[in-house]
Structures are given as C-alpha cells and as structure tokens.
Task: structure prediction
Amino acid sequence: MTTPLETLRKKRAESVNRILQKGYLANTRVYVGMATCEIAAGSKDVMEVFQNAISTGKVKDVYLSQKGCAGRCNLEPTVEVVEAGKNPIKYGKVTKERAWDIITKHIINGEVIEEWVIE
Amino acid sequence: MKEHVITICNGTACINKDVRGLQNILEEQLVKLDLQDKVKINVSGCLGMCDKGPVMIVYPGYTIYGGVTEKDITEILQEHIINKRPISRLAIQEDNLFNRFFRIFGDTKFFGRQMRIALRNCGIIDPENIDDYIALRGYEALAKILTDMTAQDVIDEVKKSGLRGRGGGGFPTGTKWQFTADQINDQKYVICNADEGDPGAFMDRSAIEGDPHTILEGMIIGGYAIGANKGIIYIRAEYPLAIKRLEKALADAEAHCLLGKNILGSNFDFDIEIRLGAGAFVCGEETALIRSIEGRRGMPKPRPPYPSVSGLFGFPTLINNVETWANVPVVILDGGSWFSTVGTEKSKGTKVFALAGMVNNTGLIEVPMGTTLREIIYDIGGGLPNGKQLKAIQTGGPSGGCLPAEYLDTPIDYESLAKAGSIMGSGGMIVMNEDVCMVDVARFFIEFTQSESCGKCTPCREGTKRMYEILTRIIEGKGMPGDIEKLERLGSMTQKASLCGLGQSAPNPVLSTIKNFREEYEEHINEKKCRAGVCKALLNYVITEKCIGCGACKRVCPVDAIDGNKKQMHHIDNDKCIRCGMCMNTCKFGAIIKS
Result:
C-alpha cells in the first residue's frame, strides 16, 4: 500500500510538471502583486499590461504569475522580474506606464530601470 | 547594478562566531581584488542556520556557505565571484521551509532583518494555484503525520516548539491542543479565527490572501491531533478576496484528496467550511465567535468551561488564530526543536506585525521574537519621515498601549511588552511622531471599543462609555481637576470586572497614555493647552505682524471671524472661530500661526 507521503511525492512531481508546462523555465519570470491592497493601488491594470504584452507576442519566453502581499505597503503595486542567472529585481509603485517601460526597457533590452528598483 | 550580492547573517549565533570580523575581511578583500563595484554586501537577521554559522549567501544562484573562516573568504571571492565556480565543499544544502524567502527578498534592507515562517510563501507563490504550494513542500507536513506520527506525537512536537497563540493571548498552543485531545467525545471541532477587527491591522488578511493553503494544512493537522473531523474558518465578510481564495483553496485541496474523505489514502477524514462574520469586533473573542457560528448573537460567556471542554454546540473545540495555524506545518516539518531555537526563552518563533503610522516603510513584517522596537522602526521601518521625532509606539490595537520612546530597546515578546504596559496583541504596530496628541489617541481607541462593546456586562458597557465622555470633555477644553484620577479608577475597574477580553483590555490605551504621558493630560485640563496642536477646541489661530492686510483670509473664513481693513493687520475673533484652519492654509505670507 502506498503511504500518504508517497502519494504526496507523486502529487508534487505532478505539480512541478504542471508548473514547468506553464513555462516556468522561461528566461524571464514576472510576478505581479495581487493582494487586496495591491489591487487597490492599481495592480490589476499592471497585470493587464503584462498579459497583453505576452498575448500579442510583444515579449517572448516570459512566465507571468500573480503573488500575494510581500509587505511593502507604501511601495505597492510591486512587480518582480527574475531573469536566469541574474539578481532578482523588484520594482515599486508600478503604474500602467511604468509597466510598459519595464517591458520595453528591462525585459526586451535588458536595461534595469534603477530609479524604480526597491533596494 | 552590482553583479553579485553577498548576504551575511547577523543573527546572535553568527555574531558570537565573529561574523562581523569576517565582514571586515570580506570588505578589505573586495578592495584588494578590485571587486567592490561588482559585489554588494547585505546584512540580514537570523537565517535560522545557527549551528552552521557563520553563514553567507551568494546571489545570484542562492548558494549558502556555512562555517566560513577567514581563509574561505578569499576562496569564495576567487572561485565563486571571479571564476564563477561555486565551492561545493563549503555549500550547505538546506531545505528549511522558511529560508527560501531570502532567495527572492534577501537583498533589500527591508527584508534583511526579517525571518518569515508564517508568511514563508506570501509574496512568493501564486496563492490561487495549489501546484505552487505543493511544489514548495506544501502538504508534506500533513503527509508526514499521516504516515508515521500518532496524534500524541503531533501534540508533543507542538509542545516542544514552544509555539504560543498568536491572536494576542499567548497561551501555549501545545497545551491547548492537549486539553482538547484529552476530551473523550465523538464530535470535536477545529476553528480558525480570522475575524481580524483591530483598526489598522491586516496580518490575517495578507496571510490568507498570500498563502491560503498553509492555513488549511495547519487546521487539518490540528484536527488529526485532537481527533476532530470538522473545521470551520470564521472570517469577516469584509475580506472578499481572502474568502474567494480560501474557497478556491478548499475546492483544490478536495480535488487533490487533501481534504474530505480518506485524506491522501489514509483513513483520516476532515472537512473545512467557511463562516462569514458580520463585522462585530467582539466576535474575535473566542466564546463570542463560537456563539456567532451557532447562529446566536455574538456575545461572550464566562470561562470556564473553556472551548476545549465545551465549545461549539457544546462539543470540545480547538480554536486558534490564522497566524498560529500558519506556523503549524513548519513546526512539524522542520521540527519543534528547530522552531524553539528561534526567539526568546519564553516566546518562541516569530511574530507578524502590521507596521503603520508615521514611518518611512510601512508594511507587513515578520521578525523573530526578541527583536527590539528600535530594530523594527529604524532598521526595517527606515525611521520616521521628515526628520520628525518619535513620540510613541502603539502595539496591540485598541486592546494595547502606547509606549514612549524610552521603551525603544524593549525586546518584542509577550512578557516584555506586558511589563512595559502594552500587549503583543494580534500584531498592529502604529508609530507616532510629535504631531500626535496622546489624549486624542486614547479617545480614538476608546471610542472604538465603546461602540464595539456588546453590552452584556456592565463594567465594559458603562466603563468604556464614561471614559469616552471624560476624554471628550478634556479634549473640548472642559476637563476638570480630578478627571485623570477618575479615568484611572474607571479604567482599573473595567479591567478587573469585565467578562471578556474586550472589556478587560479596553482601558489599556487610556491607562498607558496616562502612565507615560500624564503631563499632556494635565496640560489639557489645567492650562487648556494641546502641545501637539491636534485638539481643536484648545487651539487658537493668531495673526502676527507679518500680515500685510491682503484680505485673503477674511474672504475664505466660513464664519466671518476675521476682521481688518485693507492693508492693515487683521484679527481673529476667537469666540466666532471654528478652528477649521482655512485662513492658515490660505495665507501666502505665513502670518497666521496656531498657538
């Protein structure tokens, strides 16, 4: 009989597999904060900008996900850009316009916009 | 932008192993090897690997080096940074549940001092995707207990951890579990108290919105330990997104056989349902909460019997706060003995705080017990904006107290805060600067508690109302000698004679402000003066000689209290003035001042 631990290990392998199939290993991963507070600060609009950029093919090889509150209340909405082999970058007070700049400057051209980075 | 970040653990254990000396050497070596433009050094709070100290983490790549010596520093720089070859001999492969946090946030000052156990996944995973949670060892604690732990083993592990109730009371969690487990009854209940009602607190909401599954996992483990098959999450209706995510989490967990009948193929069954609170503050009190679930009016009842003996519908009930439940999977997976290494002697683990008020970085933080208020406000919070001076720190919301700046070095734990005259509470922390009037603060909180008092017992119902009236009188400039003593007497009676925690703690804001800021009360009563310039009735606007007689103030005054001829100094009639401040805001010459 399989033990609960074995059952769970199987489930974990399946979960990891599903995450990988969603494109987790992409060159760039983008996380947008989507807790009540972040949504109130406008993160839904920011999410939309990233979603559009991906669905229209403006950016390729990007994994987009939402996340809960990380705790930087005064800097919300926050967006995190994780690129393979680089330090993760976290942007604060991201608006629709800033999101667009992050796409064109950072994700496409690889220039970090230091002014908005949360150090 | 630096290419690498090296995070150095500055926990007590690592400092004892002279990690600061190593940091100096590292800095010297960086200059020597001409790497200072490429590498940034960060200092963090305890990384939880105390036995392996001194610990450093090198990003990107998140390589953890333990037991680092002076000699190793050169090797790390030469091999890892210059030659890009991580050193496997020094690297430690820890898969603790919490330290993953530093992988993403380790390189900001804000997160460095923190240690995230309850919030370990918040801001990291997609809360609406169960795969994200399972991939990060989610539900492994549940699988572990179902595979090779008895109910008593689980309780013993929780006892060993030293975990205490995070709702504010600080009752030892393991003991509570034991009481409930010892009751012989076919029907028992597990409840998660998510009725977060303190003004300005949002710990529970963020925890649920960021990582709902950890609450479920904690509750299922609790159910297994005490022999219950039914769990209820009592959450306020004002948290729609948290409720939505909980509902999704429940459905996903059930679809994955992690909830419901025969969990993970074992013979243990457990169900969880959500009950919505209607928003009464008193329903955060456990007996009132239970009555509310039963469909009755939310009012507390005397204890004993405690809910662990006779709770929901008269059955033994285990009730814990959101944050307590979120800690449970870590206690099981990383072990009670590991958990008990974090924190102070009597308060183990971490505590989540909602840091708010006049501080640069407001936010949701989680720090090890024993961290001082100074570290929270100045290191994590980044100090006060606009160069203002710290006046007081309010902890514990309407049930807590105000501590003056002298208490900055108080370590955060249940006992130290109580000794200083405040409480841990559920985790609200409000920073106040010199522009805040302490009498006004006391009135704000007592106004809240008197309107939230359920009215069942006289001391709370009448005591809070009368205190509110006296404070209002003082603020309106009608305070009388003897009012302070009256407040003290009323306060201590309400504390001692009230039925539940709401009344017993309601006078805390008043009593603590009297204790620590008595002179402000005296000024309000005797000199009719408010030094912070907050209490409008005690405030006079005066036009000074800078006035050129432009008449701008006269035009905006809504009650025609300003008089004066053109190009001559104007005057304010203080009997007519309603202290709206419009004149001061309008004056371009700074001629109007508050006095």
Q: What stands out?
A: Chain B touches chain A through 60 residues (CB under 8 Å). Residues 350-433 of chain B form a domain with the Ubiquitin-like (UB roll) fold (CATH 3.10.20.600). The longest helix of chain B spans residues 458-475. Chain B has five domains: 4-94, 130-338, 350-433, 438-527, 540-594.
